[in-house]
Design goal:
One of its GO terms (molecular function) is G protein-coupled receptor activity. With 364 residues, this protein is an all-alpha fold. The chain contains 13 helices and 2 strands. It has a two-stranded antiparallel sheet with strand order 1-2. Helix 2 runs antiparallel to helix 3, helix 4 packs parallel to helix 8 and helix 8 runs antiparallel to helix 10.
Amino acid sequence: MAENSTLSMKDYTNYLASVNIWKYLSPCLIIVGTFANILSIIVLLRKSMRNSTTMFYLTILAFGDLSVLYTGLLRQWLRHAFDIDLRSFSNFGCKLHVFLVYFTLDFSTWILVAVTIDRCISVCLPFKSRDYCTMKHAKIAVISICFLLCALNGHLFGTVALDGNQGCYGISSFILSVWPWIDLCAFCIGPFAVMMVCNIFIIRQIVMSNKRIESHKDPGGRNLKIDLPIPSTSTAYRNGHIPKTNGRHSKNKRRLRKISHVTIMLLTVNIVYFTCTLPIAIYLIGYKFWVPGASAERRAALDLVWAISNFLQYTNNTIHFFMYCLTSPKFRKELFSLFDMKHAHVEFEHSAAYQQDKANVTKF
């Protein structure tokens, strides 16, 4: 007992494990996240993708994820690997960096909410989507999110300060007792609730549309010609009638499958987001109850929990590209065509060079 009482927090394995997570896993996330998000941006900005509001939101999300990695995770890596804390240079730097960390994390979250709402309107209200789901409205939504998050997190310039001995910490009871609950609702539970409600409506609409397609088969199992309103500007559709047209059943199925693929992609991103961000939100609430009076061993264990929670949070901002690849055939197609195009361009250059050499040989 006497021997254990002389040990400091840094002597425990849990603390050393947390330091190793910051030192060695953080740069891995930064490197992978940088290349993955840049590749996402390149693919999403291709001509066949960039006209969609969904892809516009996902492009903004990729920029947001990069901002998260280079404001939050980079600082943690520098602090643990090189003993350089970006918040320790000045009081204003302390306030600004804390604000940027919260802002970028919240920004990525609410962009994800915006794209989910956009898809919900497109699928469930196809006639109104032509008016609401436009690039102009998408840009207004992004700007509005920025202003609202600045207002939400602006208090950090007054509730956080640099203490020469303690570092950059909260200086008011509000940020220690009230703010974690607000952050839990604004960063985790609230956004996820909106996402799930939207996804439920989307899935319900897809199921109904699929049943409608199947119901338009004749008794012999042959497909009748009918188009589903997903979406259309026809007056008949607006009046609630579904006219028989020359569209084919297979065409409707492909259209519905395309919507389903985007839905699966967004649902996967939403669930991964909630799974990765909930632990840190809970930790920030419980921190003030767990730390005071804790033994060195317990504080070492809490340090490990803090490192793992952060790692999960930043993983969410790293792996969106891989989720797009796994769940979106269109994204995979554009990704492959990107490299195929470059490969074809190289082959063309080699072929052109060969033809030129051949012509030169002929001349001589």
